[in-house]
UniProtKB/TrEMBL annotation:
<keyword id="KW-0009">Actin-binding</keyword>
<dbReference type="GO" id="GO:0051015">
    <property type="term" value="F:actin filament binding"/>
</dbReference>
<dbReference type="GO" id="GO:0005737">
    <property type="term" value="C:cytoplasm"/>
</dbReference>
<dbReference type="Pfam" id="PF06268">
    <property type="entry name" value="Fascin"/>
</dbReference>
<feature type="domain" description="Fascin-like">
    <location>
        <begin position="7"/>
        <end position="75"/>
    </location>
</feature>
<dbReference type="GO" id="GO:0030674">
    <property type="term" value="F:protein-macromolecule adaptor activity"/>
</dbReference>
<dbReference type="InterPro" id="IPR008999">
    <property type="entry name" value="Actin-crosslinking"/>
</dbReference>
<dbReference type="InterPro" id="IPR022768">
    <property type="entry name" value="Fascin-like_dom"/>
</dbReference>
<protein>
    <recommendedName>
        <fullName>Fascin-like domain-containing protein</fullName>
    </recommendedName>
</protein>
<keyword id="KW-0963">Cytoplasm</keyword>
């Protein structure tokens, strides 16, 4: 398993406390994510705590998905 850190355009790393995902952390505070290739140019992003990133209707990312569904798939 390879854990990746994500860095935002503001130079801060993605961090989550189990709720919203924010670009506010330093590298040592960042949440690690596992990329799961799902086929058809889609991936799932899973935290080290086992939660998938979900895209909420208002555009907010949360680390609250328990399984792969439409709102936890991202296209690349």
């Amino acid at each position: 398993m390879i854990i990746q850190l994500a860095k935002g355009s503001n130079g801060k790393y993605w961090s989550s406390d189990g709720g919203q995902v924010l670009c506010v952390g330093e590298a040592g505070e960042a949440t690690g994510f596992q990329l799961e290739l799902l086929g058809n140019s889609r991936v799932g992003l899973k935290t080290t705590e086992g939660k998938y990133l979900r895209g909420e209707n208002n555009g907010v990312l949360t680390a609250s998905g328990d399984e792969i569904k439409n709102d936890t798939k991202y296209e690349f």
